[in-house]
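job 3f2a | input accepted
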Amino acid sequence: MPMSTSLQVRRSGPLRGTCSVPGDKSISHRALLFGALTDGVVEATGLGRGGDNLSTASALRALGVDVQIDGGDARVRGVGFAGLRAAAAALDCGNSGTTIRLLAGLLAGRPFATELRGDASLTRRPMRRVAEPLRKMGATVEGRAEPGRPGEIFPPLRIRGGALTGIRYDLPVASAQLKTALILAGLQARGPTVLREPGRSRDHTERMLRSLGAPISVDATGAIAVEPDGWDGRLRAARIAIPGDLSSATFLIVAALTVPGSEITVENVGLNPTRAGALDVLRAMGADLSIEETGDAMGEPVGRVRARAGRLRGTRVDGELALRAIDEIPALAVAAALADGETVFADLAELRIKESDRIAALARELGRAGVGVEERPDGFVVTGLAGRPPGGGTVVPEHDHRIAMTGAILGLTSADETTVPAADILTSFPTFAETLVGLGASID
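job 3f2a | predicted structure (444 res):
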């Protein structure tokens, strides 16, 4: 089904069947970026085909890397750090915060200047937290100022790389994007770089870089050490099999749990414990889930998840659990909206600076559908409808793919038709509507 201007979503009958989801978006970014730094050809299968991953591929091509993509397969001819070349124009990162932040770390050690741009949504996302440590290491990072935000910078970013020195740095927040940017800079620095997080963010970078031979280690406390002295600066080329994206799968799983009579199985999905918090939240809500690990890919556990509809109950999502589920909170908000009782989401201030202010956006969209929701500075509280259908209407995603998908999943149980702008979903899950229709969803 080609993605049209908008989706018309109606109350659906049972969802049934087996499906797959696009390749993990986070791992796909890293397969492309790290593949460019190898000493040979990297062939990746299962690549995410959304706009964010395509932005990373396009930026690498502009830096002199041969990247070929055919459907879900990618072929990257590595050039190493030293083989990267100055781009002829500004690099367009599209809507992708991962692209701009990881490229900032990569380019911090290169002896040329680069400008990194993005769309209207990305241009509003703050970048000081990645700029400050890169400046400490010796890079020049400049950005756009905004009135009322002293000291903060926003894209476009202008980066002039140079000779870097390793640092010891305590990250202000647990962030896989920030951590990866500093690891990439640390691999180009003189002397070790040691990073500590206040909590454990997803560890795709550490797993993949170790598999490719990078001088990186993680101790029992979670501290990451990058020790590049004596390293030749090139990763080993290898084949990379990318598992299915758990964030995308969570929307389908929640749909199956909340549309009466449904039972679906999602195959070949990534089950990395540092980002599988959504499954733990759903279990705490009483979800009928069956999770089976079937193998691994580059150190990433992979398996299948079966979900069967049933009554859900409210729960609390905070602390370490909230961190491990942060990208899946929009889908979990739908589960909370349709559950019995109250669900508290807390310790999620980071959602304020995603593709949209996701806390405000979720409060607005749930409220539009008649769900009781209380917005808080670092989260929100949802009072579930307990069997009553939500209302329909038009979703306003503000260029945020996950808010758009949230509206669509909620619409499958709504009393009235829901209209969802479709373009933003292309960022991460181009086959979203097609997959749901294949399972029996009522979507035009």
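job 3f2a | The mean pLDDT is 95.
job 3f2a | closed
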